[in-house]
Amino acid sequence: MLTKGKLYLIPTPLGENAVHTIPPYVIEKLHQLDFFIAERAKTARAFIKTTHPTKPFADLHFFELNKRTTPEEITTFLQPVENGNDMGLLSEAGCPGVADPGAAIVKLAHQKGIQVIPFVGPSSILLALMASGMNGQGFSFQGYLSAKKPELARDLKRLEQLSRKHRQTQIFIETPYRNMGMIEEALKVLSPETRLCIAADISLDSEFILTQKIKEWRKTKLPNLHKKPAIFLIMNVF
Question: Which of 48, 77, 210, 236 has its CA 20 to 30 A from that of 104?
Answer without folding.
Answer: 48
